[in-house]
Amino acid sequence: MLDPKFFDLLKEDYGISFNDKKLVERAMTHSSYDNEHRDLNIGDYERLEFLGDAVLEINISEYLFTHFPELPEGKLTRLRSDIVRTDSFARFAKQIHIDKYLQIGRGEEKQGARQRHTLLEDIFEAFNGALYLDQGNEVVEQFLTQVVYPHIASGEFSEDTDFKTHLQEKLQQAGEVDINYQVIDEEGPDHDKKFEIELVVNKKVLSKGYGYSKKHAEQMAAKRALEEL
Amino acid sequence: MLDPKFFDLLKEDYGISFNDKKLVERAMTHSSYDNEHRDLNIGDYERLEFLGDAVLEINISEYLFTHFPELPEGKLTRLRSDIVRTDSFARFAKQIHIDKYLQIGRGEEKQGARQRHTLLEDIFEAFNGALYLDQGNEVVEQFLTQVVYPHIASGEFSEDTDFKTHLQEKLQQAGEVDINYQVIDEEGPDHDKKFEIELVVNKKVLSKGYGYSKKHAEQMAAKRALEEL
């Protein structure tokens, strides 16, 4: 049976309470575990993965379409494929502790499947499929706003979204500059912190940025400065 | 400028009235036309195609997930890729007369781009992206229920969804049978017809089916008969 701690974690960190707990258990279960526990009648994540894959695709696409109005289609497509690939999804899966709570059979466990990126990717997709069915797309959006979008906003996936590097290159065209990012405020509990950053260029405050992480807030400050230059 | 007849057609056939007509014009415009008419400031379909691709993916995935609860993930994935490929989308594009109303430059026109399946596919995606942004996903769903889902329900894309053939095979296991599908009712205007079909096996009515086309209604009757056998 799925560890109740996973449900506590979803509630505490993301404010998510599933109506149908069997659905999220199915999303977290590999067929090898289902086969070993036929009596529990859980099923496995595979059909939910099919749905969740498309759920992630539309939400991430809409986020990129809206937040990067200046990017042409080709760059949007490259950025999307950088985000929706196995290693990124495996990382997001670990971030919400899917690796700890997923259910696999004994044989798979011995072979180290719990850390296999393709499995973590599949279950991250299945989890989002279950969330979509149980809570609707608005809750999926809120969840991704906590788990996925901060990484995109931090410029982790593409140099097109790396505003800090753009800004530095632009400022240095006019000669040596002294660029500093300073945290001036942070608020909220650990799992939902917000940072405020000041971008200081040659000892003059150029812009401010807010974000889910220091890096995110720095990118937002750099983005604003670029818009104003 | 986009032919107003296209807007009339959308209204009459699908009940769609765009709030932002510039958005659908952009979805219907190739960059070659935009380049020849810089003063009109239309833009082209490319970014909307990026979004629309994902809009179609989630809606078709949810339709398949819901309507084929018995299909495992592998078959769902194969079925989805049969539906979302270039030739199918080009066919749907023609069905709503995108080929007639899309805007391309003179050079492209001469080279026959108006009938090119990859272009028709792209614009069908862009159109759905525009519809999603302007009207929300519920209207997209209604639109696909008229334009795309009937083809899936008719079993056009996979033998897994071809209930008529399944039923025939099953019935013939017990020897020769006489299988007939008879239209017993049709209603609604031409562009929104509904058919009612009786499935008659050895002169006995086995089931009824309703659908957007005769073939769809026949498949639904066969599906019901299979469930009851």
TrEMBL record, chains A, B:
Pfam family, any one: Ribonucleas_3_3
GO BP annotation list: mRNA processing; regulation of gene expression; rRNA processing; tRNA processing
Active site residues of this protein: D53, E125
Keywords for this protein: Cytoplasm, Endonuclease, Hydrolase, Magnesium, Metal-binding, mRNA processing, Nuclease, RNA-binding, rRNA processing, rRNA-binding, tRNA processing
GO molecular function annotation: double-stranded RNA binding; identical protein binding; metal ion binding; ribonuclease III activity; rRNA binding
Top-rank taxon: Bacteria
DRBM domain mapped to chain residues: 162-229
Enzyme nomenclature, EC number: 3.1.26.3
Catalytic activity entry: Endonucleolytic cleavage to 5'-phosphomonoester
SMART domains, sorted: DSRM, RIBOc
Coiled coil: none
Reported cofactor(s): Mg(2+)
Gene3D superfamilies (alphabetical): 3.30.160.20, Ribonuclease III domain
Family: Belongs to the ribonuclease III family.
Protein name: Ribonuclease 3
Species: Companilactobacillus ginsenosidimutans
